[in-house]
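Before surveying the methods themselves, let us examine one representative protein, pairing a chain with its fold in token form.
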Amino acid sequence: MPSRRQIYRRRRIVVFGGLLLVLSTLFYLPMTLLAPLRATEAVVPEHVEAPGAAADLDFPGYGASAVGAIGFPGVLAASGSGKPLPIASITKIVTALVVLQEHPLGVGEAGPKVTMTSADVAYHDAYLKVNGTVEPVKAGQVYTQRELLDLTLIESANNYATTLAVWAFGSEDAFATAARGWLEAHGLSGITVSEPTGLSSANRATASDLVELARIALADPLIAEIVGTRTVTLHDVGKLENSNELLGMHGVTGIKTGTLDPYGANLLFSADALIGQSTVTIVGVVLGGVDHPTINRAIVSLLASVQAGFHELDVSDVGEDFGSYETPWGQTAAAEASAEAVLLTWGDTPVTVAIEVDPVRLAPAGERVGQVVFTAGSRSTTVPLVLSEAITDPGPGWRLTHPGELF
């Protein structure tokens, strides 16, 4: 027979052992049944987007040419001389922009009135003697600032370009100083302007800087409106017809012609092109053509080749998988695109794909779990990623038997 001491010892072991079991159970059950689940990381495979075909541009074989596009920084492509060439009446775009910096004017505004004097008549006579483009003027006639801009940019009247510049700055020399400051401030070191009309061959520019000038001009709503105007009728002058014969054809929306013997014909142009569902505004210039019919034909061909060099790539479809989840308890789901997306690209610009996917614990279907960013050059598009299937709790049975997966 066990002794009384042994009986007491056995009873203590049973009691304390049972108590320990109860306490362990009370601790283990809540910790396993209520503890947060360990987050499941996504598996993200490599995703490659093929670029478009390289651009093959139909540049003319003379002078200098360059093309760009709004929203695509810099020059897309260039051909011919890289040196500054005479720009003739393209100068008047600089003249208008410099004047508008000094005397801002919005679309629909007439601006201050300017009375013509004998000096303005003298400008007319002087330019007429050198076969420059002029429009009639008499002392005492009154034009608004907007009307002077129309005469300068639509009709390309040299006498009114000088009238506008001298009205704004007091003299041609003061205008030239202001023009140099404006060009420097805009980083257009390849453009030189010494007078407001372009009759001087000292007014020169590189084709690449003229592409940037086109961007700046179109960014001003008033300039964009005027250079896109085919005809306008003014008092004392009559009907003004835009010197840009391509305007309204082949998507052309502007900008400015220039002709200077013996340096040839120039055109600073802009045109809207439809690429898939996107519209691209192309800007460019051709300098040093034989005449305007010749460069107009060249520009039509060049624009067609530029348009063909753009691509609208389908980079994402709704439901396309960019990552996958598999939980320790066997549930699976995908990180899928929530939207279709296209990326407008130029030529064979490489497309990079950056996928960001978050770890998931418990989440309903459709919850955002990351994003994918497609980038080509300076352009990008972002598509949210959502969970394709709900990730739900595995239940008490799995929790109790897999405590190591909970923390």
Q: What stands out?
A: The radius of gyration is 36 Å. The longest helix spans residues 4-34. The chain has three domains: 1-34, 35-51+314-405, 64-308. Residues 14-29 have pLDDT under 50 and may be disordered.
